[in-house]
Write a structure and sequence with these properties.
The protein starts with 5 loop residues before the first strand and ends with a helix. About 50% of the residues are buried. With about 325 residues, the chain is of the alpha/beta class. Strands 1, 2, 3, 4, 5 and 6 form a six-stranded parallel beta sheet that branches. It has a three-stranded parallel beta sheet with strand order 7-8-9. The model has no long low-confidence stretch (mean pLDDT about 95). Helix 4 links the parallel strand 3 and strand 4 (about 95-100). The chain is built from twelve helices and nine strands. The protein is globular, with a radius of gyration of 18 Å. About 40% of the residues lie in helices and about 15% in strands. The protein has one domain: Metal-dependent hydrolases (TIM Barrel, Alpha-Beta Barrel). It binds zinc ion. Zinc ion binds near residues 102, 174, 195, 268 and 271.
Length: about 325
Amino acid sequence: MKKYAIIDGHTDVLYSLPMQQRKFHQESERGHVDLPRIRKGNVSAMFFAIYPGINQYFVLKGARNLVDLVKEPKNELMFIKKFSDLEKAEKENKVGVIFHIEGVGGFDTEFHILNLLYHLGLRSFGITWSNSNIFGSGSSFTPGAPKDTRGITAEGRELILEANKLRVIVDVSHLSDKSFWDVLEVTKKPIIASHSCCRAISPHVRNLTDEMLKALAENGGMMGINFANAFLREDCGREVDTPYTKIIDHIDHVVNLVGPDHVGFGSDFDGTGVPDEIKDVTGFNKLVKELERRKYSEEDINKICHGNFQRIFKKVWK
Ligand SMILES: [Zn+2]
């Protein structure tokens, strides 16, 4: 098996480390992500999410914790702030950190916090985390909850334009369907769905319909496939015996629909229940093997593993 460097579109490791009382640089039996297991999975960079970003306190606390994590030499991490940092990280044998916030309800509407965090290294954010905030409405997980039909608000439109201007990636995972379409109407740059799946296979609200995937492709964007059992399965169940090959079924679906340039991995490791067979971030090796078994070309495996995310970085950050 050839080795492919992985860029993973979503991990909640920052959130799970203190919850599970474990250290990033030490291999653990708990959780999904730590440095030794990242090395075994051949992961070169991940989107490290600050969660939750619902208010200013959580945004600032998350940013401080992430900066602390990255500056600890034992963790062998490096912020990826521009495209050439990917190469620099590889040369210095560091794991790349893409600073991401999941839901920016904690941002002010004059964007002081956004601009400040950009200077610290923020390069990507999702507008909401399933809930709703001043900038827009999320997908909501709660059955029977009153539907927020606002979509993206006037403040949210300003936020997207400010992100475009600053060169920060806008992420539509966790948005309501109306918000998704509103973002596409406003943005001048490619966007991502960092950790979602295909609704044609699994009818979960967190997944994207074929129409959405086609529009995402037209925008030049991409989707990172989420490893959550509930988003992979036809019945949206949480059973951990979900076959790991379901992840590749979702990749197949996107590739058949819009080609190989608009899909990658967005594991959601340390933020969700994944198939037992995947276990943790070392499971990327199995996924690459399955792509090879399904006769994907080397070029396409490169795109899925990291090339498509790299294209977005180049386009949005330059
Ligand atoms: Zn999430």
